[in-house]
Design goal:
2 copies of one chain form a homodimer. Chain A is globular and about 60 Å long. The first copy, chain A, contains 9 helices and 8 strands. Chain A has a domain of 121 residues: Jelly Rolls. By secondary structure, chain A is an alpha+beta fold. In chain A, helix 8 packs across helix 9. The model of chain A has no long low-confidence stretch (mean pLDDT 96). Chains A and B meet through strand 5, helix 3 and helix 5 of A and helix 3 and helix 5 of B. Chain A binds a DNA duplex (30 and 30 nucleotides) through helix 9.
DNA sequence: AATAAATGTTAATCTAGATTAACATGATTT
DNA sequence: AAATCATGTTAATCTAGATTAACATTTATT
């Protein structure tokens, strides 16, 4: 793997745990670097998800297609975030979600085949992943509360403040899907907000 | 701690990792057993959450009170489940949620003061908690998708099938809150379902 | 530059679910 | 047994957001 790409991952991990140089070398030898083009899929609903992916650059959407064929976006992932279908990854059963690149995207990929060996070789990673999953879980629970306690307009304003960088690079109809509303209604909300200020 | 109560926890943990007898003894010496009465609070919104709790018996609700004073139930916890405000627990900042007992409830409590020592003494627990939090995160993400892709009636039917035991012991208006609908509308849904079958 | 494809807007109409309010039942307390 | 409190039901009215459809703008492709 290209050394400077690996360093981005190591810097990220070292914010949570401190790896020795030997551990860093082992880690980088066990993961893989890969580029995807805009539109390519990392995971497809129904397939078994083989990788947990750390995004180096670019952007992905994670979405579910329901029985009526409607697309529901669960999350976006940009630099320094993770993406995959974790449920599928940990149980090795068919994925509920698609993960698709919205831009040219660079990833570091942790294969299911090596993840147990990796934990065995570097037990600290168990702690590292526990910590980042805890954060993700907490964020997910807060999002459930927001989906029930806030109006669509309030959710949009929250999203815009929370993720200003994401809003700029993603089409509005995808943000509507993430917020659980139609693109038409988001358009209405935006024009209301312009009138208000 | 009462030995047979500790055994319930050990049995649960040993489904994920296998503890030696020495580790089991250390674990039980570091956690505490406690009983709560119906109505008592384990965590109160605004306080810092000091404990991760494993429910031995009884039932709790985790809820958030929003700016309008509305209560939103995030989860119920019964036997063999966990409860706390994890966000508050890991960052030791004020809690977003209340956790209140709906019945007389027995818990085993992991204090924030000992949790790091516990991980140091029994590294396997790092793996154990990673695994259960992964499961919780996956469930939470699926719930977000359901909240956007299913109607209130569909969400209720799903809940009833998924947690038949919980439905029986909890007042209907709390189930409505968990589903993100009013008690009046849940009542309407139930009468519709009776007519349908 | 012209065309096509993707994205965004506006407005009319419709509906799932909220709100309000009155009443019913059941459990607890005195 | 009466009274109080918690829980559940029904029905009328209201509203946030969906649906439909027509059009506008921006971006990509030839």
């Amino acid at each position: 793997m290209i050394k400077e790409k690996g360093q981005i991952l190591l810097d990220y991990i070292n914010k949570y745990v401190s790896l020795s140089e030997a551990e860093e070398a082992i880690l980088l030898s066990m993961v893989t670097y890969r580029k995807y083009l805009k539109g390519q899929f990392i995971v497809q609903q129904g397939d078994v998800c083989k990788y947990e992916c750390f995004v180096l650059s670019g952007c992905t959407k994670t979405f579910h297609i329901d029985d009526e064929g409607q697309e529901h976006i669960v999350m976006f992932s940009i630099e320094d975030w993770w993406t995959s279908d974790m449920g599928s990854f940990i149980t090795q059963t068919p994925a509920d979600y698609n993960v698709q690149c919205l831009e040219k995207t660079e990833m570091i990929m942790f294969s299911h085949d090596i993840i147990e060996d990796l934990y065995a070789a570097i037990p600290k990673l168990e702690r590292f992943f526990r910590q980042i999953i805890q954060k993700a879980f907490v964020a997910s629970q807060k999002r459930i509360v927001r989906s029930f306690s806030l109006s669509a307009k309030e959710r949009y304003v929250y999203f815009r403040n929370q993720y200003p960088k994401i809003e700029q690079r993603i089409p509005q109809y995808m943000i509507a899907s993430y917020l659980g509303i139609t693109k038409e209604f988001l358009s209405k909300i935006k024009s209301q907000l312009i009138l208000e200020q």
